[in-house]
Amino acid sequence: CGPIPLIYADGGAKHDSFLMQFTADMLGCELAPSEVEELSALGAGCAAMLALGWTDEPGLAARRHLPGFRPAMEPARRERCYEGWKRAVKTLL
Q1: Are 24 and 30 in contact (CB under 8 A)?
Q2: Residue 88 and residue 84: Cα distance in Å, rounded?
Q3: How is the chain split into domains, by residue range?
Q4: Residue range 5-54, pLDDT digits in tens
Q5: Which of 7, 9, 40, 46 could be bridged to 14 by S-S, CB 3.0 to 4.6 A?
Q6: How far is CA 58 from CA 11, 32, 46, 51, in A?
Q7: What pTM was estimated for this model as a whole?
Q8: Fold held by 6-92
Q9: What backbone phi and psi angles, to 5 degrees, belong to 89?
Q10: What are φ and ψ of residue 84, in 5° steps?
Q11: Most distant CA atoms of the chain, gap in Å
Q12: Side-chain half-sphere CA neighbours of 76 within 13 A
């Protein structure tokens, strides 16, 4: 599939700058917080519009997002943090 260059973020977590930067660093791709608080609801609404044949909405395909977070962590530190993150997730599961 190849590398993912950009991931859109929504919900309450998008307001946590530390979490957004850490996630961008761990995933190695840019995170772009959406202006829309809940993209799931917007997606469901857009799917319903398309199902009804309403395809002439000019903003339907527009992707609006806030300034993003780009990976900035040094590779060695990223690897240490990633290993710690995997241990934390394993503990929770």
Answers
A1: yes
A2: 6
A3: 6-92
A4: 888 888 888 899 999 999 999 999 999 888 877 778 878 888 888 899 88
A5: 9
A6: 24, 22, 12, 16
A7: 0.69
A8: Nucleotidyltransferase; domain 5 (3.30.420)
A9: -65, -45
A10: -65, -40
A11: 51
A12: 0
